Amino acid sequence: MSPPVSRREFVSCASHLALAAACLTPRRRALWAQGTDGAVIVAQEPFGRLEAVGDGIWALISNPLNGDRTTLSNGGIIAGKSGVMAIEGFNTPAGAAWLAGQARTLTGRWPTHVVVTHYHADHSNGVAGYRAGEGQPQLMVTGPTRDQVLTRNAPADDARTQALRGAAHISTGQSASIDLGERTVRLVPRRGHTSSDVSVEVDDPSVVFCGDLVWNGMFPNYVDTDPLALSAAVRELRRSRETRYVPGHGALAGEREVAGYAAMLDEVEAAARRARAQGMTAGEAAADFRLSTSLGEWQLFNPAFHERAFSAWYRVLTP
Q: CB neighbours of 289 closer than 8 A, spacing ≥ 6?
């Protein structure tokens, strides 16, 4: 098991994010900061914007370009006739409380359910913010996610701990269906980015909240990744009909963007297999690695992410 993430390490990751943001091309910066053409933005703050992606469904697209780390990860809201689901706990309680307030403004009610897709701090550390208002939503996480937040995310937080200890468990072995009133949401346990990922899925309209199983236009963090499982999960997430995918980071995605992400993962795999066959270390392979220009722009959050990717592949390729 990896040790807890220290405050120093966490701030360092945020600093890498700021550096990566400064290197973005104008096109990628505009897409991240402003969204795609025609996006219906219902609320906007320095840390992100809330975009309508379907009737009663909104995606929070975080925008950390200016250094505001209130949310960091993407998330969203799904509303039915009798319930409202918020997705992700975000980096701070202020981020969760903001999303809950937006749910109340848009739907007339505080969230009744909250789903956290995995344990990483930018998705989970702010869950106590949902208890800042009039509601006491049911927090839903997998058992491993709960345990990893409590043991690996530092510093400890009493309010977060209390919220997680009262959470309902999502089984890691089968999907769960949540009835929000004339709208069913599926919570699908997966693995790949971490050992315990969850996608949040709606069929009508076709929307998938991917957590960090999908990143749009940014190279993913392989720190806890099983790359074989990640590639399989991305294939399983994709649908044969028009779908809006909410990635863990980056702008809203469609089939073209998710197909590009899958192709990028395949290229990393091929490079790792070649490098290992040639006797290169993960560090040497990473230093030598360049994505094909045909794959388009893929920004690094952190200069170490390529080596993490090759190290993850070497773990699964070593007998």
A: 268, 271, 275, 306, 310
Tell me the β-bridge partners of 104.
Answer: none
Above 90 in pLDDT, residue 134? no
Select from 163, 211, 166, 165 the least CA-distant residue to 188: 211
Q: What is the pLDDT of residues 110-133, one digit of tens each?
A: 999 999 999 999 999 999 999 987
Amino acid at 283: G
Per-residue confidence (pLDDT) for residue 170, from 0 to 100: 96
pLDDT in tens, 178-226: 999 999 999 999 999 999 999 999 999 999 999 999 999 999 999 999 9
Q: If you ran DSSP here, which 8-state letter would residue 132 be given?
A: S
Query: Judging by beta carbons within 10 Å of its beta carbon (0-12, 13-18, 19+), is residue 267 exposed, middle or buried?
Result: middle
Closest CA to 221 of 121, 297, 129: 121
What's the whole-model pTM score? 0.91
Ramachandran assignment for 21, one of left (phi > 0), alpha (psi -120 to 50 degrees), beta (any other): alpha
Dihedral (C-alpha) 35, 39, 45, 47: value to the nearest 10 degrees?
Answer: -30
Q: Which segments of the chain does DSSP mark as H helices, in order?
A: 7-22, 26-34, 93-107, 121-124, 143-152, 158-165, 227-237, 255-277, 282-288, 305-317
Residue 38: pLDDT band (50, 70, 90) is confident
Task: State the CB neighbour count (10 A cutoff) for residue 40.
Answer: 10
Host H or E run for residue 54: strand 48-54
Q: Which two tokens stand for residue 112?
A: 């009744």
The DSSP annotation for 296-315 comes to ---EESSTTHHHHHHHHHHH
